[in-house]
Design brief:
Structural class of chain B: alpha/beta
Oligomer: heterodimer
Order of helices and strands of chain B: HHEHEHEHEHEHHHHHHHH
Helix content of chain A: 25-40%
Largest sheet of chain A: 6 strands, mixed
Radius of gyration of chain A: 18 Å
Number of helices of chain B: 14
Helix content of chain B: 55-70%
Order of helices and strands of chain A: EEEHEEHEHHHEHEHEEHH
Shape of chain B: elongated
Strand content of chain B: 5-15%
Shape of chain A: globular
Strand content of chain A: 25-35%
CATH class of chain A: Alpha Beta
CATH superfamily of chain A: P-loop containing nucleotide triphosphate hydrolases
Strand order of the largest sheet of chain B: 2-1-3-4-5
CATH topology of chain A: Rossmann fold
Radius of gyration of chain B: 27 Å
Distance between the termini of chain B: 26 Å
Distance between the termini of chain A: 39 Å
CATH architecture of chain A: 3-Layer(aba) Sandwich
Structural class of chain A: alpha/beta
């Protein structure tokens, strides 16, 4: 099976002064894939994520996202990606419809298109009666699901999720992952960082970062076999724990 | 452009949905104008005066009767010598002392002229000016009566006005220019810095930065509503001071509005700069209040005249933009001065604005690296 590459990273180095946050990263992410990006705090995940999403520029190396070079064309990358961060990213003093209208507008969608798709989305999430309510009136689980729906509302080629399920109950997390699968089925590539090792099992492939380097990259099954572990968590502990 | 307008619309929604923001935007300016306006009263009635009449003749008797029967003044005390002036004034009931020298009436008849003194309590500058003006008017009126009665030789009493405690009389009618200066700094710098740091704190800024919106558009989108609302505020304050306090703009209204726009721009860029250096809303509020509001109130010359400050404060106030705006707006509004009289201050404000915009753009870029 030949798959299209949507993210290609070659020899990526990012330095802040004398500190090397990303030390020679190499990996590829394929279209429609769910790619898990794991690592302890301070391992360099966030730095890499910021470079991939065009927020920050690499010190050296070649980064191609959705066909555009991250160093030369970060603005073009931005048009082709969606983003959801660990902090809640919708405006609490706006209604659901206003939030969607805002983000849809920012990504250049037409008003008619936004309106039609908003109704579809509300119906799908069974949120019809919430449409004109302020976000602050919604429970956290609903908000996270909504934030994800907004991140993929403009049908980006890739969506970056930075610890999307922090502080969410297990049932909502499960529903959340169902939404991720659905987006991947539509052809949207999902690039997700997480702390929850059980979530890593849901990914097609995972990479594990430690001290600025990628120390493992494969499918969860292959990694478990290679390190003779029962779960991704065991793999992670074996690799990431300093000897 | 459509993206930008959508973003501006969202910013307006933030403002109109937040009760506290609305209070700060529209409640405080109105309250301040009304408070300052009514506290700084422009009318006197039954003000206590004392007389020091050293000649005690017909003329002095007539003049003091005329003063006391005018309805504006009430005779509180009659003094015997100069030493008592300070004493009665310190007691507070006497707002002014009117002094007739020796041989007042005789001098007036023999030489055709005589001098009287009006000594007013300058610690209440507004009242003091009013009192001296009223007394002078009454004496002028008396002069005219005298001149009418004895045609031929002109008799002249020259009132000599002296202000105790505050000879400069620097502060009346300053409240409208002062409030405008203060309100604009408050709205522009405080509110913009808070609204930008709020996005940072809530994590929405990151989502915006990842979006196709350019950083410049984000900043412009955040400040545009405040620019418009501040401008509306200036017009509102001017209307209010005109309708309620009868204080018109003497100079060119267009020049005044243009200068206000410059000052708004300066304050907005300050607000952006503050938001660039602060991580939380509390920090932004603190910097705005302590770093901008207090110096504006205390050192811009809006309440306390800069001329009376120790030199060190004077130097410090020279780096405060409000100081220059107070001068500009005061000159245009109250003195009716044209651009020729305020170009220096305008130039300084322009340079400061450019400097702040440059600094905030640089800061914003550095943060993105």
């Amino acid at each position: 099976m030949i798959r299209n590459t949507v993210i290609s990273v070659k020899n990526l180095v990012k330095k802040f002064g004398s500190f090397t946050a990303n030390d020679n990263l190499n990996f590829e992410v394929y279209e429609g894939e769910i790619f898990g990006f794991l690592g302890a705090n301070g391992a360099g995940k966030t730095t890499a994520l910021r470079i991939l999403s065009g927020l920050s520029s690499p010190t050296s190396g070649e980064v191609i996202v959705a066909g555009f070079n991250a160093k030369k064309d970060p603005e073009k990358i931005k048009k082709n990606i969606g983003y959801m961060c660990q902090k809640f990213s919708l405006y609490e003093d706006l209604t659901i419809r206003e939030n969607i209208m805002l983000y849809g507008g920012i990504y250049g969608m037409s008003k008619v298109n936004i309106k039609k798709r908003t109704e579809d989305l509300l119906e799908k999430l069974h949120f019809e009666e919430y449409g004109d309510r302020l976000i602050s009136a919604l429970p956290l689980g609903l908000r996270q699901k909504l934030a994800f729906s907004v991140a993929v509302f403009h049908e980006p080629r890739i969506v970056f999720l930075d610890e999307p399920t922090g502080g969410v109950d297990p049932i909502t997390r499960r529903q959340f992952w169902e939404m991720i699968y659905e987006a991947a089925d539509r052809g949207i590539t999902v690039f997700v960082t997480t702390h929850y090792m059980d979530e890593a099992e849901y990914c097609d492939r995972i990479s594990i970062m430690s001290e600025g380097r990628i120390v493992a990259l494969d499918t969860p099954e292959a990694l478990k076999k290679k390190y003779d572990a029962g779960s991704v968590e065991e793999v992670f502990v074996k690799i990431a724990r300093p000897q | 452009m459509k993206r930008f307008l959508g973003f501006v619309k969202k910013e307006f929604l933030h403002i109109f949905r937040d009760f506290r923001t609305l209070i700060i935007l529209f409640g405080i300016p109105v309250a301040q104008i009304l408070i300052f306006g009514f506290v700084v009263s422009t009318d006197i009635r039954d003000a206590g005066v004392a007389f020091l009449d050293l000649s005690k003749d017909d003329v002095t008797q007539k003049i003091s009767d005329k003063i006391c029967s005018s309805g504006f003044f009430r005779r509180v005390d009659d003094l015997q010598n100069y030493n008592e002036i300070d004493m009665v004034m310190k007691k507070g009931a006497v707002k002014a002392v009117i002094v007739f020298g020796d041989n007042f009436g005789a001098d007036l008849i023999s030489e055709g002229r005589a001098t009287m003194s009006i000594i007013a309590d300058g610690s209440e500058p507004n009242t003091a000016t009013l009192i001296t003006n009223y007394v002078t008017a009454i004496v002028t009126d008396f002069n005219r009566e005298l001149a009418g009665a004895s045609t031929g030789n002109k008799l002249l009493i020259q009132p000599e006005v002296r202000m105790f405690y505050n000879p400069g009389m620097k502060s009346h009618f300053m409240f409208v220019p002062g409030v405008i200066t203060l309100i604009l700094i408050l709205i522009c710098a405080l509110m913009t810095s808070v609204t930008i740091t709020r996005e940072k704190e809530f994590g929405t800024m990151e989502v915006l930065l990842v979006s196709p919106l350019k950083p410049l558009h984000i900043i412009l989108g955040k400040v545009t509503p405040y620019f418009l609302l501040s401008f509306i505020n200036v017009i509102m304050i001017l209307l209010l001071s005109w309708l309620v306090f009868d204080l018109p703009v003497k100079g060119s209204l267009i020049l005044l509005l243009a200068e206000s726009m410059l000052y708004i721009l300066m304050s907005l860029s300050l607000g952006i700069l503050i938001s660039a250096v602060s991580k939380t809303m509390q920090q932004a509020i603190f910097i705005s209040l302590v770093g901008l509001m207090l110096p504006t109130i205390l050192l811009s010359g809006f309440i306390f005249p800069i001329e009376n400050m120790p030199e060190a404060y004077d130097w410090f106030s020279a780096i405060l933009p409000p100081r220059y705006f107070v001068v500009i707006i005061k000159n245009i509004m109250i003195k009716g001065a044209g651009f020729m009289y305020v170009w220096k201050e305008t130039l300084i404000l322009t340079v400061m604005t450019i400097l702040f915009i440059g600094l905030s753009v640089r800061n914003f870029k550095v943060r993105l690296q």
